[in-house]
Amino acid sequence: MTTKGNVFRQLEPIRGLSEIRLTELANLCRPETFRLVPIRYGQRQKTANFFT
Asked: Cα angle vertex 37, ends 8, 46, to 5°?
């Protein structure tokens, strides 16, 4: 849940993303998905690059 919150905080300032888009991105934020990404190293950069 903390990870999802961080992702939402990352995507909030981005314009042009609808709530549906945010929901789709939130669905991608599963433990299985984030196991592939070393989040502890530069979490903000990794998530931004992952979705952008």
From this structure: 55
